[in-house]
Structure formats: C-alpha cells, structure tokens
Amino acid sequence: MTIGYAYLLFLVLGIFLFCYFVATWVWIKVDKSNTEINNESNKDKRRDFLYLASISIGGLGAASFMWPFIKSMNPAEDTLALGTIEVDLSAIEVGQSITVKWRGKPVFIRRRTKEEIVEAQEVNVSMLRDPVIDSDRVQKDEWLVLEGVCTHLGCVPLGQKVSDIKGEYNGWFCPCHGSHYDSSGRIRKGPAPENLPVPPYNFINENTILLG
Ligand code: FES
Description:
Layout: H1 2-33, H2 39-73, H3 77-83, E1 85-88, E2 97-102, E3 105-111, H4 114-121, E4 143-147, E5 170-174, E6 179-182, E7 187-189, E8 201-205, E9 208-211
Antiparallel strand pairs: 1-9, 2-3, 3-4, 5-6, 6-7, 8-9
Helix pairs in contact: 1-2
Bound molecules: FE2/S2 (inorganic) cluster.
C-alpha cells in the first residue's frame, strides 16, 4: 500500500507540475506576442492561454480532490507500527523454535543446533529446486528466520514443536501435499516450488531482532 501511495502521489504531483509549466510557457508566449499588433492572432493566442490555464486549474482541482483519497491509502500509524516488531531471542534454547506473528503471517525462528547448521551447509545446492546456499539465508549461523508459509499453497508447515514431524530433511514438513524443507528452510521434496522465504530482519543487539 505504501508503494501504491507513493506512485499516486507522484502521479498527482506530475499532473500538477505539467499543467503549471505548460500554462506558464503559454503565458510567456502570449505576453511576447502581445507586443506584436496583430489582433486576430492575439485572439487565438489568448484563447490558447485561457484553454491551458483552465487545464492547469483543473489539474490543481483534481489534485486537491484526489488528495484525501490518496492520503487515506497511506497506512495508519498503528498499522505502520505493526510493520516492524522486535523479537527477544534470549529465552530460546539451542534446538528450540518459536513462532511470532508478523504482518499477519507466522514467522519461524529457530536456534539451530550444530548438527542442523552443518547439515544445511553441506548440501550441494546445485541439486536443489531453489538453489541458495545456507549462508545467504542467515545472518548468524545459529539463527534461522523464515516465513512459515508453504510456498505451494500457503499451509503452515509442521516442525516448530519438538514433537512435530520435521520431514525427511530435518526441517519442516507441510502435511497439506507433502512438501519437505531442510534445516535452512529450503524445499527438498514435494510440490512446493520455492524455499520458505526469509523475511527482512536485522539484529539490533545480541539477543534481539527487528522484523520488517
Ligand atoms: S500447501 Fe504445502 S505442500 Fe501444498
């Protein structure tokens, strides 16, 4: 919605500036030609000027009319606040996962064991459907952050709870149609076309990430 808002804003400003410059240009031309005493020609020029000035004023009117609609498309302050969330990682033990909600989606955060990290790093990515090396999917080896939405048809895969089935590749398993993800969240088997997405996030200190 923010991008749409920016586009519309540019569009309206563009229309306004275009009309403004055209009207100014015509006005200068008419002013010049007024020095020549040619009544018929001046009448035409004046008509052009009036015509374009009307367009310009019309553009301004349209801009003012559209402004409230455009402004209403801008996300509200509380919505923007929900766009980023801080997650405290300090209570997550090695081998544990938590799920947080971000922008209406589940986000999986796993503190990987040494074995899971090695497994993820040793995969020959040329064999993968969506080939990405593990180091391109994490900021710190120990912490894996993923959107928990299967890339097939959007189910939430299993694998967050210790008791969950984690699939054949020790990551996540989507029971809807049988997609298996590995310990880097990459698709390894089943119909899902892509890896589980990595959302935008940053570590703001040793134990906290800012999602979004
Ligand atoms: S939605 Fe996950 S395998 Fe179909």
